[in-house]
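I have been asked to look over a protein record a colleague put together. The record follows directly below this note.
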Amino acid sequence: MPHSFQFALILFGIMGFALFVRPIEKSWITLPIFFAGLGLGLGPAGLGVIDLNIDDSTIHTVAEITLILTLFLDASKIRLRNLKAHYALPTRMLLIGMPLTILMGAAMIMLLAPDLPWAMALLTAAILTPTDAALAQPILADKDVPTRVSEAINVESGLNDGLALPVVVFAALLMANEATSNISLTPLAIGQFVGAQIIFGPLAGIAIGFIGAKLLDMATHHKFTQPIYEGIFFLSVGLAAFFGAESIGGNGFIAAFVAGLTFGNAKKTNHKFITEFLEGESTFLSILTFMIFGAVLAPVGLAHANWTTVLIAVGFLTIVRMVPIAISLFGEKLHFYERFILGWFGPKGLASILFALFVAEQYELPHIDEMLACTVLTVGLSILVHGLSAKPLAHHFEKTMQKVKNK
């Protein structure tokens, strides 16, 4: 079936959701559940109307652009000046909980699949570690949930995909080295390549993000620009950081993340339109990604699923997430229910999907099907269990904390 017709169907689904978003939001159906389910229903596992496959160049182009802009947009929301004063919880979760999650996840994968190379275990763990706040929106929006809890979930989600990316790239290169007999892939060569990626990428991101912010401030001050073009300029900075870093041997995705962080903290003028533009673009890209997940990734992952991949998926949603977070929060004055919420709401979504597609495109690795199966099962279960549990747990928060006060 022509790609034009398939994409038309996808857009009709988006139009329908947009028209009835209020009634849908009042139900148990979340955006990820709706569009992942729609993609699954229209894809090879369902009606077969959408027959895109994981090797399709269109899929990878959409995924690459989405990953660039998602990293840039998420990072641009973070205000570094607030981290020390108000963000003790996410700082602990990112600097202690996240590394522990990757290490514990890799160890669990090696225990459950001892024949899997350790580099692939590390790669899979790094892909499944980032969280997606979109699957916890009821928690973030509920007024009964303390700000420190909702902000911790939000900030952790905004930063951990960018922090996980260097580990994903490093592990993929190690796996590629194990899988090839190419003598050029020596430890020194890998070290030099990874060094260039993680040095030139951030440098390009800082330079382009800072210059972009100052140029926009100047243009706004002198009234040279208009709001709609501020949004276009904003997205162009993210793409420029990516391609600029790639041209000098750096990692473009890391550059996009650093550029967003730099841009958001360097600009002095409050550009309200950029925030509105950001939210609309980000939501649209998320919709496309969850559709691709349901229609393209899910059939591949489910075809290679087994009890081992199921156990890995369940582990990443429970013990591998919750134990490291509990350790990272040791010493903080938090109620047990707050600790539970912070540990439970580590939903897997956008970043894991995009990282999996990125690795599948960039590297020809053995065991890639097993990695995709783990990703599909983990994200699929997360979409369901976190989507369905968010509202009840948010509503239960007020009752639980009230009981504590009355004791």
The chain has one domain: 57-150+158-401. The two ends are 64 Å apart (CA to CA). The mean pLDDT is 83. The domain at 57-150+158-401 is CATH 1.20.1530 (Na+/H+ antiporter like fold).
